[in-house]
Amino acid sequence: xxxxxxxxxxxxxxxxxxxxxxxSLAQTPTPEAASPPPSPVPNKGxxxxxxISACLVLMMAVPGLALFYGGLVRTKNMLSVLTxxxxxxxxxxxxxxxxxxxxxxxxxxxxxxxxxxxSKAFLKGIDANSTxxxxxxxxxxxxxxxxxxxxxxxxxxxxxIVGAFAERMKFSAxxxxxxxxVTLIYFPMAHMVWYWAGPDAVAGAAKALAAATDDASKATAxxxxxxxxxxxxFLFQKGALDFAGGTVVHINxxxxxxxxxxxxxxxxxxxxxxxxxxxxxxxMIGASLLWVGWFGFNAGSNLESNGTAALAxxxxxxxxxxxxxxxxFAEWALKGKPSLLGMLSGAIAGLVAVTPASGFAGPMGxxxxxxxxxxxxxxxxxxxxxALGYDDSLDVFGVHCVGGILxxxxxxxxxxxxxxxxGIPDYTxxxxxxxxxxxxxxxxxxxxxxxxxxxxxxxGIGSAILYKLVDLTxxxxxxxxxxxxxxxxxxxxxxxYNY
Length: 499
Description:
By secondary structure, the chain is mainly α. It is 66% helix and 2% strand.
């Protein structure tokens, strides 16, 4: 027994001595710095939120927008509007996975400022393990989830245009125009505003620059950082802020609709006959679905389920309430009675205006934005529209284009931290984390105005060319006899109501 204890003590002492003499014999783990960092793994909560958001935005289009627009037209055109919206959603969904996603969210090489390429056409190289960056360093989501979410934006945007020329455009012409418009107008706009290399690419290049010690290595690192920043759409490079689609969706669709209603001309009987909505009940249901779905639209655009998504959600609540109340009381004061249609239109105006600002503004700033949007859009849809005499059937220009312009410009103001905003995002001053960058209100307003101006020109001129092209080939407008009969029967051979 004594011999065993002595042997154990001797062996233990020998082991300790060996470790003191040669430390490498100890089982020291390999330093983490020697191993490459593991790739980020999507968070299940973020993934679930993005899939839910995609479904919410789809609900905005069908049935939300379809019912909102359908209730505003006459009974004989109800089914045609439902068909137009549903068809657009279905067609664009296919185009998105064929080539739209690739054109919007890949590098376009020499023309990368304006449009992407075809490297991911037909979803080449994408599988269930593919990920894309969010707005936080080291955070990713499945690419399929991001692809689906952005697809719903592409689906609803051309569907918004329908309201401007409702009750008079041929279905065949609408199908051809939609295919051309999303390809040549929407996909490039989405690329110009939203495509970038991502926060981790910026952080990696910025860290390399910070670590450079001599002039040569600094120059090389600076060139690498410049290349990363250049790998972005034109308006993103300029620093334009658009959280969820003020330019890409609302101004883009609003000006396209305005151009379309001017080219097609007024409806038969406009200004003479009663062209009243056939079901404000349907319109109320549609508007309510739009509001609920818009939480996916705005809060989902954060790409993560965190505090910024909650901020966007709150702003989507309060701006909408403010705009609905503002329109209601403005109409009550000027016309003597508060209308349901006015309140619903105000709510949509508030949703449109807060879209680009939803993740940048503070709640109190969003309320002010909503109040202003309600009054401004009311004036545009009543006084200005009547004075100019154009027939924008369902006020797409007055609500979406004007509300989108107001929101895009206001974003440049409301992002100011002194006004409760979150500040300008900066990924380079503290590589690896999101910091608040330098902010100058006038400079940011100029950038926002440039984004608005480019969107108006790109979509306005481009849409006019596409309308004329379709008109010269297959014709835009139904015949007078078909318009009087109604597009339900003329285009589709069925009615919304058979009683």
